[in-house]
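[Discussion] Sanity-checking designs against the backbone

I'm trying to build intuition for which residues belong where. Below is a structure token string of 338 positions. I'd appreciate it if someone posts a full sequence so I can compare it with mine line by line.
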């Protein structure tokens, strides 16, 4: 009797046929694929719409507002301190709430005296760059008319205070030259504060003059928008140390180390220098008194700004009265009060 066919063999055969067919199909697919190195990848592009003219205008306007933020801050601080027209006299817009501008800046904005002065000085430098070479255009804003800072060809504007601060110590004409040199070194772009500082330092070294001041000489301080010398412009001082590029001078209210660019020789005769030294000694003995009243301090400040090497009769009497009141005389000996 014939043996029935085995089901197991049928199943194996079917499985074998299916595997062979799948392998054949896979081989066929692989053989039809391109070299992966030359395969084309399809990327769906997302279209970015171009800015409209209005959007371009808005962007430029906002960028300029960011760039001139430090400039506007310095200008505003200057007006708060001096008014819109400084020549007319200080308006002191802070006077209703604060006695001094320094106190006002500290409490209202968190600025120290030096920080506020640097912002004002930086705005002065920016004004110089705008007025002499960089263009200025008036544009309307929501609140006021403000200068729109532009670039003209290769002329690039500073956009933060760090780039401007090193220029403060230079004369206005030299500021413009130094800034353009910094722009060149930055490849025609806005230079960093470090680049500007390096250029300014090289400029100072190139133009520095020898220090000819002598010990005991009387000279006058020139503030020249140097924030650290604010309030000292016009004061005379006695040179007590001569450095390579600066002098330490004794003034009516203390000692200051000042670069020779900020000093002016008064060319007094030796005898006149000795007379001014005596006056300086008398003022200095008084200024250290903790109980010195404002009226007495005002007299000392006046004497510290003299433009002559002597005291008038009235000035001598005033100084003598203050010395007597606070127990000091010209010989630095206490005066006994009855």
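Best answer:
Here's mine. Compare freely.
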């Amino acid at each position: 009797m014939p043996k029935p066919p085995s089901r197991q063999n049928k199943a194996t055969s079917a499985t074998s046929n299916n595997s062979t067919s799948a392998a054949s199909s896979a081989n066929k697919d692989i053989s039809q694929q391109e070299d992966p190195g030359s395969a084309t990848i399809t990327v769906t592009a997302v279209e970015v719409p171009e800015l409209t003219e209005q959007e371009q205008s808005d962007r430029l306007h906002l960028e300029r507002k960011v760039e001139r933020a430090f400039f506007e801050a310095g200008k505003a601080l200057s007006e708060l301190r001096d008014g819109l027209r400084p020549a007319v006299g200080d308006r002191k817009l802070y006077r209703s709430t604060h006695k001094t501008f320094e106190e006002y800046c500290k409490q209202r904005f968190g600025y120290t005296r030096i920080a506020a002065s640097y912002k004002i000085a930086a705005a002065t430098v920016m004004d110089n760059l705008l007025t002499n070479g960089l263009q200025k255009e008036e544009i309307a804003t929501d609140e006021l008319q403000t200068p729109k800072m532009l670039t003209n060809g290769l002329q690039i504007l500073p956009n933060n205070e760090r780039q401007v601060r090193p220029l403060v110590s230079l004369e206005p004409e030299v500021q413009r030259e130094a800034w353009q040199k910094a722009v060149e070194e930055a490849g025609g772009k806005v230079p960093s504060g470090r680049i500007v500082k390096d250029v300014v330092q090289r400029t100072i070294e190139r133009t520095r003059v020898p220090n000819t001041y002598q010990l005991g000489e009387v000279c006058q301080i020139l503030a020249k928008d140097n924030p650290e010398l604010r309030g000292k412009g016009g004061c005379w001082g006695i040179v007590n140390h001569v450095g390579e590029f600066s002098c330490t001078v004794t003034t009516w209210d203390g000692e200051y180390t000042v670069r020779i660019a900020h000093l002016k020789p008064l060319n007094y005769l030796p005898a006149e220098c000795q007379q001014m030294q005596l006056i300086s000694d008398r003022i200095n003995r008084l200024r250290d008194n903790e109980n010195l009243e404002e009226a007495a301090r005002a007299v000392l400040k006046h004497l510290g700004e003299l433009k002559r090497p002597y005291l008038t009769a009235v000035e001598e009497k005033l100084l003598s009265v203050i010395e007597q009141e606070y127990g000091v005389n010209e010989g630095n000996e206490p005066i006994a009060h009855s």
